[in-house]
Structures are given as C-alpha cells and as structure tokens.
Amino acid sequence: MRVVIAGGGLAGLSAALRATELDAQVTLLEKGASPGGSFVYSSGYIWSYVDLPTFRREAPGGDAALQRLILERLGPGLAWLEDAGGALLSRETGNPLTFGARFDPERTVSALVDRIETSGGEILAGTAFETLLEDPAGRVTGVRVPSAGGTHAADAVILASGGFASDAELVGHHIIGGPGRMRVRAHPRSTGDGFRAALQKGALASAGLDEFYGRNLPAAPADFHPERFVEVSQLYGRYAVAVNANGERYADEGADWSETALTRATAHQPGLYAWYVLDASGLKGRVRELTAKEMVETAKSTGGPVIAAASLPELADRLAERGLPRETFLRTLEEYNAAVAAGRSPSPPRSGQVWPLLVPPFVAVKVAPSITHTVGGLAVDAGCRVLRGTDGQPIPGLYAAGVEVGGVSVGGYTSGLASALVFGCTAAESAVADG
Ligand SMILES: Cc1cc2nc3c(=O)[nH]c(=O)nc-3n(C[C@H](O)[C@H](O)[C@H](O)COP(=O)(O)OP(=O)(O)OC[C@H]3O[C@@H](n4cnc5c(N)ncnc54)[C@H](O)[C@@H]3O)c2cc1C
After folding, report:
1. Ligand 1 atom nearest residue 161's Cα
2. What is the DSSP string of 148-166?
C-alpha cells in the first residue's frame, strides 16, 4: 500500500507516522524547506471542547460528525503523540470549556520526523505537489510534482496542505468579499494547493468558506517577526470599545472568549482596521496571564499606533489627526457610556462584563485583523474521505486532514492542532483500511 501525503504540518506528520505504523509505504511532500507548518509558531495547545453540547454551542454551524470525531479521538490521539515522542509540556489548557494538552512544537516536530524516517517513511522537503492524478474510473492514483521527477503514484493521497489562508485571491473572494488584504498570521505557504486540486477533481467544498480563524494584531506600521505572532496578539477587545474608521461601534466586543467573532467583523470594516479604546479600568482587564495594559505595551513595542490622552475629547482630537471623524467618535462613546450607565444594551449589543469608559487615562490602539487559518475547505466524511460534489460519495483514493478539512468550526472556533492530529491519524487509518 503506497500513500502520498501532501503537506508536512502536524496533520501531514501525524498521517505519515500513523500510515507507516500500519505498514504503508509513505512519501510526505513538504513545500517548505522543512516540515512543521504553523505548528512551529503556535502555542502548542491541542484541545477540544469538554463535551458535544459545548462544542455545538461554541461552533453551532460546524459538522457534528467531525466535532464528535475530535471529541472522541483527541484523548487517544494525545496519548499516541506522547508515545511517538511528542514533547508534552502540560496536561492543562487553562480554559474550563476545553480539555487537552500542550506540546512543545519544535521538539514534537523533530520527534515525529525521526519516527517517520526510522520507520521507513520518506520526507521530501522543498517539494510542492501541484495536481492529482486519476484513472478513467475517477480513482485518485497519485500526484504531479513538477520539481521532483514529475509524478508520484499512490494507492491513496492525503491532502494536508493547510487550506488557503495565504492565498490573497481566495481569501479576497471567499472571506473579505471586497477590497483590502489581511496579514497572514501563519507560515506563508498554505496557498490553497490541496483545496484547488481537489475541486478540480470534482470535490465538494464544505460550509464556512467565508469564515476564518485569526486575531486582531497591531496595525501598520507595526513590524514583528512570525515568532512573535502569539505575543503580539491584541486579545482584549472584551475590555475595550471597538470603533471602525467611521468612528462607530461595529460588533459585540465580548461575543466569544477567543474574540474570533470580533476579528472576523473587523475584516469587514472599511480599510480593514479598528481602534480599541480603553480607559484605566479596561487596561487592568486580564486575559490569562496578561493584562490589557501589557498587551497594549507590546503593540507599542512593535511600532503599532497607540494614542493616550487624559480625556475623551483630547483622544478624539488626536484620532481626528489620523482621519477618524471626531464628532461621530465622541457621539459613539457618549451613547455607549449612557446606555451602560442606564443599564440598557448599547447598539450593537455587548456581551460579558460591561462598564462605561470614564477613568483616565484613555488609550486607543489601532488593530488590524490577521488570518491564521481558513474554516471552510474540503467536505469529508467521518473517515476523512474527501466527498464528491455530484453525489456526496467519497472520491476513491482521496483523503484530507487538518485545516484542509473544512466545516468543523463554522460559526465559531476550535483547535486547529486537534484537527491536525485527529484527522491526520483518521485519514491514514481510512486510507490503509480502504486500500
Ligand atoms: C501564532 C499561532 C498560534 C497558534 N496557536 C494554536 C494553539 O495553541 N492551538 C491550536 O489548536 N492551534 C493553534 N494555531 C493553529 C495551528 O497551528 C494550525 O491550525 C495547525 O498547525 C494547522 O496544521 P495543518 O497541518 O493542518 O496545516 P499547516 O500547519 O498549515 O501545514 C500545512 C503544510 O503544508 C505545506 N504545503 C502547502 N502547500 C503544499 C504543497 N502544494 N505541497 C506540499 N506541501 C504543501 C505547508 O508548507 C505546510 O508545512 C496557532 C497558529 C499560529 C500561527
């Protein structure tokens, strides 16, 4: 049984190792100079919601069969990863809605690579797959790889190329739906290669193509290295009032714990940016081990625009110098403060802890949305078999794992690393069982 895997992030590495354990002959193709994908920039938390009702509540439009698969297979998957030499840092996630574990990304990637190679698997770095081969009956029979001898024949192909976050055209078309470009908060190579190749062979796209997971980051001219992606994230919208370029509130800042909804809403604002406005009380707000004030200081250290003032009118003057309409901005905050003080819901409504912005100093931080990964992708069954558009049946020989699998967290957010680990192992098992 010969299995080709396209992509060497956690999904591809998990699929490759699991397939070698099941005695398949494995070739993993990695476009970058070395495997690891976005895992190497991540915080390394591999998690699931604690139960299906919580999963459904947090990602209500997601595919329930895939959510159940993650929930049921994550525990055994984490044990498998540890047995495979994964470098476990903690069995806690620090979030009562979730369970999981934290792994050291670099050491885990190198353990997986060692295991794959010592088990006889082949890893070809610097090698991008381009298209899928198929026989006249429509069975996938391998991949075309222009840079490495043309083609690789296979009984099964597992696509694990990480979705299309880094393809400005696909992101513009499906997600932003207008002018502008989002910064990529991930490695830059997930340009939709697997997604496009599968669609060309008649694959079905999942729900959620217009959604993404990401964070609001310090806006231009902020400058920082990818290794600082976690540290520079501006994750305190819940303590701020977020206004757009028109000086208006545009979203519920406290809609969800991961601030995914706020980030997504920011991607639809004019100019793709917002100002987070805080007072002294908001600056004391805490998200895990950091205060909002510390996150604002980090934004400043990157060169991102941060403005402080002793009063809201002074802040409005300073923001007007940067193009924000002064009177609208002041009216927005007055209306917000009045609604909150009167115990009314502001418009748009606001969830979580709410207080008026009254205590100086007042601070405004310019933030811009960034994309870490796509939510939509290829539709698969609960065995990670890619489904055909015409009849919803599996395309023989074709599987997907990780971010390539779409539709898991529609309407919310879930762990990309759990999708990588669980779907990687599942795709390998299905490929070997079907072969
Ligand atoms: C800063 C940051 C923090 C994060 N923190 C967490 C966290 O704590 N918990 C969590 O669950 N998630 C987290 N994530 C998200 C998580 O890292 C990703 O969801 C996960 O790593 C995706 O894995 P993947 O293997 O599906 O895709 P990727 O990691 O994107 O891997 C895809 C691989 O495919 C390769 N590739 C692309 N095209 C081709 C081609 N044509 N041929 C061959 N190879 C190709 C790419 O080079 C890449 O190596 C974080 C991400 C970032 C950036």
Report:
1. 34
2. TTEEEE-SEEEE-S-TTTT
Runs of H (alpha helix) within 119-182: 168-171
CB 125 within 8 A of CB 110: no
Domains of the chain, CATH where assigned: 2-211+375-434 (3.50.50.60), 214-369 (3.90.700.10)
Residue nearest to atom 37 of ligand 1 (CA): 161
Residue 65 CB coordination number (10 Å): 12
User: Parallel, antiparallel, or unpaired: how do β-strands 286-287 and 140-145 relate?
Assistant: unpaired
Q: Please count the residues of the chain.
A: 435
373 lines ligand 1 (CB under 6 A): yes
Q: Is 350 in the pocket of ligand 1 (CB under 6 A)?
A: no
Backbone angle region of 177, left / alpha / beta, with phi > 0 → left and psi within -120 to 50 → alpha: left
> Cis bond leading into 221, ω under 30°?
yes
Maximum pairwise Cα distance, the chain:
72
Rounded to a whole number, what is the distance in angstroms from the first to the last CA of the chain?
Answer: 7
Is residue 113 a contact partner of residue 125, using CB atoms and an 8 Å limit?
Answer: no
Q: In tens digits, what is the pLDDT along the chain, a chain of 435 residues?
A: 999 999 999 999 999 999 999 999 999 999 999 999 999 999 999 999 999 999 999 999 999 999 999 999 999 999 999 999 999 999 999 999 999 999 999 999 999 999 999 999 999 999 999 999 999 999 999 999 987 669 999 999 999 999 999 999 999 999 999 888 999 999 999 999 999 999 999 999 999 999 999 999 999 999 999 999 999 999 999 999 999 999 999 999 999 999 999 999 999 999 999 999 999 999 999 998 899 999 999 999 999 999 999 999 999 999 999 999 999 999 999 999 999 999 999 999 999 888 899 999 999 999 999 999 999 999 999 999 999 999 999 999 999 999 999 999 999 999 999 999 999 999 999 999 998
For the Cβ of 39 lying below 6 angstroms from any atom of ligand 1, the answer is yes
